[in-house]
Specification:
The protein is of the alpha/beta class and 736 residues long. The protein contains 29 helices and 25 strands. It folds into four domains: 219 residues, Glutaconate Coenzyme A-transferase (3-Layer(aba) Sandwich); 207 residues, 4-hydroxybutyrate coenzyme  like domains (Transcription Regulator spoIIAA), CATH 3.30.750.70; 83 residues, no CATH class; 72 residues, no CATH class. Helix 2 links the parallel strand 2 and strand 3. Helix 8 packs across helix 25, helix 9 packs across helix 10 and helix 14 runs parallel beside helix 21. GO terms for molecular function: acetate CoA-transferase activity; hydrolase activity.
Length: 736
Amino acid sequence: MAGDRGQLSNDVNACVDEVIRRVGKEITLGLPLGLGKPVRFVNALYQRAKDDPEIRLHIVTALSLLAPKGGSSLEKRFMGPFVERLYGRIPELAYARDVSANRLPKNVQVSEFFFKAGSYLNNRSQQRHYVCTNYTHAVRDLMAVGVNVVAQMVAPGEAHGQPGQVSLSCNPDLTLDLIPLLREREAAGTPVALVAEMNQNLPWFGHHAAIEADRFDVLLDQPSSDYPLFSAPQMSVSPEDHMIGFYASALLKDGGTLQVGIGSLGAALVHSAILRHSHNEAWRKVFDHLNVDQNFPVVTEDGGTGPFEQGLYGCSEMMVDGFLYLMQEGILSREVYDHAGLQALINRGDISGEVSLSTLDVLRREKLIDSPLRARDVHWLVRHGIFREAVEFKGGRLRVGDQSVEGDLDNPEARRAIETLILGEKLSGGITMHGGFYVGPEQFYQYLRGLTDEQRAKICMTSVNFINHLYDHRFGDQKLKVAQRVHGRFINSAMMYTLNGAGVSDGLDDGRVVSGVGGQYNFVAMAHELPGARSILSLRSTRSSHGKVLSNIVFNYGHCTIPRHLRDIVITEYGIADLRGQSDEQVFLRLIRIADSRFQQELLKKAQKAGKVDPAFKLPDDWCNNTPQAIRRAVAAAGDASLFPPFPFGRDFTDEELTLGKALKGLKAATATRRGKLSTLLQALRARDDEGRYGALLERMGLSNPSGLRDKLDQRLVVHGLQQLETPPDTGNSKT
């Protein structure tokens, strides 16, 4: 019942009791994707289910975050102190750890629609219970499985001058649409429970994300047990990643719209966009070195090379930390407004952000306001900052304090008075970032908590169904979305890409799920619907597997995420393949052109054998320089090696950990095969650190004084790995 809502408690077990009282012991629990899971409540409910087999608990969610543990003994030694430093004060999701260890009780099931990439490839239970759905269909599917409890971490409003409100902050994405549907289900007679867990560490966001606290039934508020937010460490950006990001940055249209995903490829794009804007001369040196405009004319048609004078608008299901860096650099600065007619006038340049009498004349010409002005006109003009906030409409006239002005725009005297007393200075209410959820490094959360009120007002965390497609939504209809999302660039990553134009992003050909579709299909489809928009799928041209280098551009594959009829733009570190509207032969050739040169000839032969490419076609010489060495030369073209750093936005690893990480990565690659493992072990047995050069690094690994055989072998392996970092490969007899 509505009167029972908004119950405040500082006892998590009392909250669990109340949920069971409301809905019984058949619980289908919907939890937010990623960061917004209320760990205290979820752990208490899960423990209750473990203690009481009569409870049937089905958890439906996505991206259950866990601190990494490491597999081998060396990985565990490396990760232990790092994990303690980053996650030591954060309670662990108990059900997620049990899922990972395959020890869920029989009365508990966990279904997810998105995994952390690769985390459950070998977990048969999670593979069986995975739910394949587009992000925009997640609410529908949650309702279909009978969700009757929703629980979420929220930010309390008191500290932000909003008593009685909470902010959905990091996860309004699904909750905003779930709440009214659950209340409808409740009104029809099905018991439900909505639970909010307060956490003062969660950044506050207003607009759509701020809702009345009593829209929840139960609110857990225990400040003494508030915990830090789960962070995703900054990932290193390789030279190959930087080149992919560089090419993508040349496809951004000034005055356009940007969506980008998480990970090193997204970070690389943001970094190159900042270079283009703030260090344009250095950016142009790389651009010219690569002859980007000549080799890939699409950048001239759909991209740009200059600073972002008009700025970009962010519209992305995930607000990655890169958007904040773009905001700090003045790039994420194009404001959009929640009125399609007003937005269209801004897009055409008929009005600007600066308010004047001509603004009123244009609005009148377009029939957005009348003359004489009416009450609804004045209200609308005040809301958008065209009139000052203090302006009222009384007795048919405009009033500011004790002064009264006629609202006739044809009256010269009234116009002068309006200009002097009534007009505002700038349009207000503009948004530069619409996001559905966020998760990122701790530095990102600190920045978000430190935003000024003005900066925070430019960010609107909202429903993913508003962001991810063009259908009408209560926060904006299709006409508004089209007006806001001009020159959309929707940039996502893929694992593989087939020569006929299909993207492989979420699964393997044996049916196993690597991650999930998420919103990728939504954005690709939207790019084909929006005028002037482009879908961009980025991927590294190769990967290493079991000691072998394999091409990620493949002839065919037994699974796809993005079908070939939605092919658009594909980027590797070797360039841009513009596939939209092209014949199959051109699609095959353009993808071969951006493949690693070690695989181009084989791909061409398969394409010719299939009859997709003219048998007489020969690879042009300028296509055949797609090598790692060429990438290094391109990165160096700007003349400053520091322009493309491995951690452009800071890092969570110490210097020692970076060195050890490289050594362990080298060891892992060297032992990928049986022969390599044997060779590495034999070399490691001879490795010594007699001079004590690696003392601090061995101490960091807990191997300064190894006691047992395993520890002594681990010490030798670490020393060998560190020595390999310092010993360049012997190329004296090389003929290449």
